Every structure is written in C-alpha cells, then in structure tokens.
C-alpha cells in the first residue's frame, strides 16, 4: 500500500501531472466556468477540512491525510510510516480488527491507504448516506488503535513480502532505490518509502505505537471530502467526530529535516541483475520542488519535463527513438509536489548494441540546446495546453480532485496554489524554461544509473 512517491508507482498514487490536448482558449473558458473553489475550514483542534462539492451522484470520497511520511521516520527505523499504515487496519476497542473494512464492504464501498515520503493517507468511497458512520470510524482510528504482537508480527511479514515483490524482485525498482540513495547524501528522501529490508525486519509493536502517538493527531491531519456534500453539511459532522479529539501540542508547526549540502560531484550507480532483459539508463538532477522553488520555477520545470520527455513529440523521443534510432524508448519527469528538494529525471532504453555513452551524449546535447536557445514556441504552447487541459478533464473524477488538494496541503501548499496551477503554467515563458535548464542541469547535481544484465558466472559454476 505504498503510494506513487517521486520514484515508484504503486497503489494509492498522488497527483504528479495531468495532460490532454484542447485549444488553450477553450481550456481558459472551461477553467472559468467549471473550476469550483472548495469549502475550507479548520476545527478548533487544528484539523484542516476541505470539501469539494460534486452533486452528479450521491457518492463521496473521504480521505484523511497525515502530514507524516517516510522522511519523518526515526533514523534506523526505515519503513515505519508504511508499517503503521498497514497496522491501522488492525482495529480499535470500539471497532475490532476487520470491523472497519467489513463495514465499508457492507456499504458497497471501497477503501485503501498509501504512504509516501511526506504523507500517509487513508480513503474510502461510499454512498453519501454512509458518510456519518464512516467519519465516526475513521475518527476512532485516529487515537484508538489497539495493537498486539499476534497481529503486528504477521503484518511485518506481509510488508517484507511486499518488499520482495515490489523491490527485491524488480531490477528496475532496485535501481531506483540505489539512485535515490545516491542522490540524497543527507536528506531522508534517500531512504526507501518501504524501508531497508534489514530495518523492516526489526520493526515491532512498540515502534509502531510510539510513531502513532507522536504523529497521528487532528492538528497533524487534513480531512478532504469530495462528492455530494457541501461544507455546511460536513462541518457539523466533522465537529461531532474529529472535532472531539484533542490536539497533540508536541507536533511542531513546521517539519524541519536535514538538508542536502551543495552538490559537489556527479555520481553514478550500476546495478547488474541476471533478470535484466533490456539495459536502461537514467539520470536524475536535484532540483527545487513547488515548495522550495522561487515563484514560477516549479511550473517551468514541469513544462520542461514534458517538452523533453512527455510523449512521442518530446525532444528526447524524437532524437533518440525517431531520428537517431538508437533507443526503444525515452522520457523525462519532474516530481514537484514535495516538501523539500526533489528530482528531475530522464531515462532511455537503448537498442541492442548501443552504448550508454551514446544515449548520454543526446541527453547532454538536448540540455545544452535548451539552455542556449530555449524551446520552440510551438512546443511550449503545445505542452502548456496539455498541462492546463488535464486540470479541466480531471474534474470529472472526485477522487482525483481530493488527491490534488490532499497531496498539496500536506507539503505546505494551500488551496490557492491548487486553483492557480493553470494560471501559473500559462505564465511560463521560453526564457523561464531556458533558465531552469541552465540553472539546475549541472552534472554535479546529478546521479546517473545504469541497469545491466549480470553475466558473471554463478559461484557454484566457478567451483565446477
């Protein structure tokens, strides 16, 4: 139940970017006509509430986001945030193990949870009439968790099996893990969300309860409800349920973590695995996030990522796959929703016989061209149109809207930042894109990862 964080795509993903194609003038009109400002208020105990009204069907998506993720774990106990996410389904005195999930199933609803570097979330989708009961049960789970070794230890084995399936048995995931660790010399983003195996194996009941008592409180949580309700309808329900929980005064107003030193040297990581069928290369740069960047910087980086590697019209795809025909695929990405400095990445799968150096020469030449000449006006307009358009189309999905606000607010952004995203994208200029490439694509800020097939003889083969 790990989410899509900045490096891995798993269940319960947060929104990174969303892009389709319609004329920009039509998008601007749609934005004015359709985007609805959510109702927002804060309970007396500090819990933030966001209500996004969607009257089309009598259904609601209910999400509780905690402002704590893997980057907030105690050193030496990696994977603890994700482990607790699993254990939150083990019940309370009022709702014993399985009762919550059984109720959601009987309601005809669905539920899940997710953990990322900066947040942990729990969500359910039910018919509107079941919302009051659902809120009572989730509020009970905020402080009433009961854990015993007979449920904790087997769940730790479940997490270890998840690690085996998603990371240990995936060469690509293993490379991502190693690249991330090499990227962050000091910041806890270098730890895997699921944790390091040897540390997961030692997590216990006391670790989970201590983490729970410190971080799970209303003043460290955001309630997001999207669907057939209004703020006026939700407020009394929220006050009657979540509003009765005491705040946790020990929670700081702002999370402060160890930060990265000024990058001084490029790094490379090579992972050899017998299961690799197709080698690949990726390069990541340490760049500002939407929280740490200067005004307009994050939007420019997002536009740049889509120009460089967003689809078949992107610069990397056109150069590597279509023109030079030395790669099977190529792309780029930027993960802006992050509390601290994040990554801009590019990757390619070379054709058989093509050296990694040939791919990297194209990476460098595309970057150098953008840094010197900027980007073509038609490409800039196309990508901005795609980015803005998707914010309109995504309004058709209430769960997506809830994720937008939850993932933004948990890293310190506000409702206005979500609403103004199309405006900020529309304002991005070619000069800003060029400056982003000039400023942040310094090799000393990068980690390059190579995924290759391990062809070395096995140890038993050497003995024979």
What order do the helices and strands come in, and which of them pair?
Blueprint: H1 24-34, E1 39-42, E2 48-53, E3 59-66, H2 80-87, H3 99-106, E4 110-115, E5 120-127, H4 131-143, H5 149-168, H6 171-183, H7 197-200, H8 205-215, E6 221-227, H9 231-240, E7 267-273, E8 280-287, H10 297-309, H11 315-323, E9 327-334, E10 342-350, H12 356-373, H13 377-393, H14 398-409, H15 415-419, H16 421-426, H17 430-440, E11 446-453, H18 459-463
Parallel strand pairs: 2-6, 7-11
Antiparallel strand pairs: 1-2, 3-5, 3-6, 4-5, 8-10, 8-11, 9-10
Helix pairs in contact: 1-13, 2-5, 2-8, 10-17, 11-12, 12-17
Give a verbal description of the structure.
- With about 475 residues, the chain is α+β, with helices and mostly antiparallel strands.
- It has helices at about 25-35, 80-85, 100-105, 130-145, 150-170, 170-185, 195-200, 205-215, 230-240, 295-310, 315-325, 355-375, 375-395, 400-410, 415-420, 420-425, 430-440, 460-464; strands spanning about 40, 50-55, 60-65, 110-115, 120-125, 220-225, 265-275, 280-285, 325-335, 340-350, 445-455.
- Mean pLDDT is about 90; it is low at about 5-35.
- The strands form 2 sheets. It has a 6-stranded mixed β-sheet, sandwiched between helices. A 5-stranded mixed β-sheet has the order 7-11-8-10-9, with helices on both faces.
- Helix 12 packs across helix 17 (about 430-440).
